[in-house]
Amino acid sequence: MTLQPGDPLPPAPRVAPDIDDDFSRGAFSDAWVLHYLPHWTTPERSAARWGFTSAGLALRIDQDQLDWRPEDAPLRVSNLQTATFSGPAGSAVGTHRHRPDGLAVRTPTPTDLRYAPRAGRVDVTLRASSDADCMTAIWLVGTEHEDPRDSGEICVVEIDADALGEHTSIRCGIKAHHDDRLTTDMITTTVPHDAGEHLTWTVVWGGGVTTIGCEGIVVAEFDQSPDYPQMLLIDIFEMSPGTGTYPKSTTVRRVKAWSTRSQ
Questions:
Q1: Where does the pLDDT of residue 1 fall: very low under 50, low under 70, confident under 90, or very high at 90 and above?
Q2: 240 and 74 in contact (C-beta within 8 Å)?
């Protein structure tokens, strides 16, 4: 059945989720790697800045935080992800080859698939950052450990701090990257909520369809889906350091995730 914006999302699977982390309880499961794509940089640059609060897990940008990679500066990131993969040091083999100009592995990482289903559902409850020059994002990306073409991305949501309000402008969709079986299809749309408050964002993908929702309601549906292992990333980016006050943060309250097809 084709779903339209404004329709109710399908119910969650009736089986126990692979991940069910309520960060307001002040603990992690072993699903998470607290680095951002660590193979393309060095540990002191990829490591998340974070802390627990009564509201959940605060992913922070601190004033003394280094750029993720000097070549991508200005860009500082704190991120959670559910898998790692890379080739040897100096190679161009690894998850999310985000640029073509001399990208090389600096910190080899093992193939570690903590949550990387070919199809599934993810519900993330978070409060987007309202801090200057920040973007909050939830996305899934192909691990590439089986095939370098397996690089497609599901952008569940990108939320710019200056887009927050009673109605929030967001971006979502599919990014093909190096996968010629997919077509990039990103949209900008509005949800009738202030994303600076805790909202639950949902993605359901598999069988050639990707559905994205907010607060139980469909935001968009796309007639394609990656058909290979996808890892989950949740992050805050700061694109032009030096403005606003520190620390900057986004707060993740809860993550529930299911695999609906075997890895």
A1: low
A2: yes
| Dihedral, CA of residue 79, residue 76, residue 92 and residue 153, to nearest 10 | 50
The tens digit of pLDDT for each residue in 240-256 reads 977 899 999 999 999 99
Question: In the structure encoding, which two tokens stand for residue 137, read together?
Answer: 């994002």
| Beta-sheet pairing, 49-53 with 209-214 | unpaired
CATH of domain 19-259: 2.60.120.200
Average pLDDT of the chain to the nearest whole number: 97
The residue ranges of every structural domain in the chain are 19-259
Report yes or no: 75 and 61 within 8 Å, Cβ to Cβ.
no
- Contact status, residue 235 vs residue 42, Cβ threshold 8 Å: no
CA atoms within 13 Å, Cβ hemisphere of 172: 23
Residues with Cβ within 8 Å of residue 3, at least 6 apart in sequence = 9, 10, 211, 218, 221
